[in-house]
Specification:
globular, 6-stranded mixed β-sheet, Dihydrodipicolinate Reductase, domain 2, 339 residues, alpha/beta
Length: 339
């Protein structure tokens, strides 16, 4: 084991919102990687049925309305992962505490306004503190940013970028439903080189994914990846599309929450993401597939934390994943967990 590996093994990583669906996946993934989670919730009794042992995990309480409780809960951590949405309600308080404490901040936000605020507000403060603030390191957001970065490669710009997301089903968590109800902000896309509000009714298109997902009717549904990508990629058109079947699931109030399919806790949900970029008549495409968007988000954000703590990347400030990580290398490391 290398010196840097020894420094990461046992590293304290705080998980704010650890009692939630994604938060529990994150705690489990940190343990799998040999790190020491600090599980933070508003009420530590919420962990009673989690199956987590106090020998493996530190349990602490904190409240975003009381900064002193956040400072105490984060004490000793090298990084914090915020899993508590809606992020426009929690991200500012948790990121401020992380920067005050000199630790790296990650979250798993799909919300455009929250991600924009993190990048705009914390860049200078994070650089002064020598830490990184990396929002939206999740399936919706950072994953597409990394895929786009890998797709473009040596292209300095693109004419068009389309992110095609296909889910065989979408069983939303309680947190997803709450965020959807509260997040009423306008969604943004890039058209003719400008960041503009998504036109309504939503644009539609058709797409055929590889494998069983096959043909799908698609609607334009931009998430936080739009904000991330526009920070470091110049393109005339940038659009994200989601299959209508997945939207039907989430719009149906009777669709149940995800259920574990095996001992990992992952559901049986399958996803595919196609990124297609064009430039001067040339086309590049990358295809990714995996299982359970919530469980996958936990793997993705923990991979980012581990790389940062191992010193595999250098840099600080508030940055998109595509600028702070080497996209091809990080995505390649996920292969065994995403197929």
């Amino acid at each position: 084991m290398s010196k840097t590996d020894r420094g990461v093994k046992g590293a304290l990583v705080a998980v704010f919102g650890a009692a939630g669906h994604t938060g529990r996946f994150v705690v489990a993934e940190l343990l799998r990687r040999g790190m020491a989670p600090i599980a933070i919730a508003r009420d530590v009794t919420s962990f009673a049925s989690s199956g987590l042992s106090s020998h493996d995990v530190l349990f602490r309480e904190a409240f975003i309305q009381r900064p002193e409780t956040l400072d105490l809960a984060l004490k000793g951590a090298q990084a914090v992962i915020n899993c508590a949405g809606p992020f426009f309600e929690t991200a500012h308080a948790v990121a401020a505490a992380a920067v005050r404490g000199g630790m790296h901040y990650f979250d798993v936000s799909a919300e455009q306004p929250s991600v924009r605020e993190m990048l705009d507000t914390y860049d200078v403060a994070a650089r002064d503190a020598g830490v990184a603030v990396i929002p939206a390191m999740s399936f919706y957001g950072g994953f597409a940013d990394l895929l786009v970065t890998a797709t473009l490669g040596n292209w300095s710009q693109a004419d068009t970028i389309d992110v095609m997301i296909g889910l065989d089903s979408w069983h939303p968590t309680r947190g997803t439903r709450i965020t959807g109800e509260k997040n009423t902000s306008q969604r943004m896309v890039v058209t003719e080189g400008a960041l503009v509000p998504l036109s309504l009714p939503r644009p539609e298109k058709e797409w055929t994914f590889d494998g069983p997902l096959g043909y799908q009717a698609m609607l334009e549904v931009p998430f936080s990846e739009i904000v991330l990508i526009t920070r470091h990629v110049k393109t005339a058109e940038l659009h994200t599309w989601l299959n209508s079947a997945a939207l039907d699931d989430i719009h149906n109030s009777t669709t149940p929450a995800p259920k574990p399919a095996d001992e990992t806790g992952f559901s049986s949900q399958r996803f595919m993401v196609d990124v297609v970029a064009t430039c001067d008549g040339s086309t590049r495409r990358i295809v990714a597939q995996g299982r359970d968007i919530y469980g996958f988000s936990a793997v993705l954000v923990c991979e980012g934390v581990e790389r940062l703590l191992k010193g595999k990347i250098s840099g600080d400030g508030a940055q998109p994943p595509g600028t702070i990580f080497e996209a091809h290398e990080l995505l390649s490391a996920l292969v065994c967990r995403t197929i």
